[in-house]
Design goal:
223 residues, mainly alpha, Tetracycline Repressor, domain 2, 2 domains, two-stranded antiparallel sheet, 11 helices, 2 strands, 4% strand, disordered N terminus
Length: 223
Amino acid sequence: MTLTVRGRECFIIHVANKSGTPGRRTQAESERTKVRILERSERLFARRGFGGVSLRELAAECDVQHRTVQHHFGSKLGLYQAVLERWDEELESRLLAAIDGQTEIADVIDRVVEELFDYLLSKREWVTLTARASMGEELPEGANLNDQSWLRFMDRGLKRQNLGAGKVDLGLLLISVEGMLNNHILARSHYQALYGKDVTDPKLKRRTKEHLKTILRAVLADD
């Protein structure tokens, strides 16, 4: 395209938007920034806890301005909440998949151990964080940030299918399952001291899962 200015012919060069969709690239970048904030904040919160890190320190760790964190999450507490809830939906879907088509509580427990052990092992920092949150560590008064996925699992899954009805206290059982899984996931120093390796070792991991199933089956048998 040309434009004549005072008798001179000038060329106008159009700079094309490669995506062909104005604004979409910015939106994608914003989403990537949000994910980066969640990932890096998860690590920092897991190491230092909610009260051990400031909003500015979180922003620096994420390579953003603190205003960017506020834009996406509102506050440090909002970010903490988002990090805690980040994997809830996937965790719940895995739990529900474990009981699909099952009629015996013992079979459910076996499948829960198989389904969740590897998954939680891959998210150790998040497990550390949820353990901190369950103790209400240094949170503002009135903040209710405890993990809800196990509670929803019990309500939507086990109770609806009446698994173990009248035979076992499902609440206590699920607390025990979650506690055992989390304890083994986080017990790195114990595994190193006793076995000279981490539970991520394939053979040791298989042995650990079978051990957990055996213990939980014994609990069910006693009940």
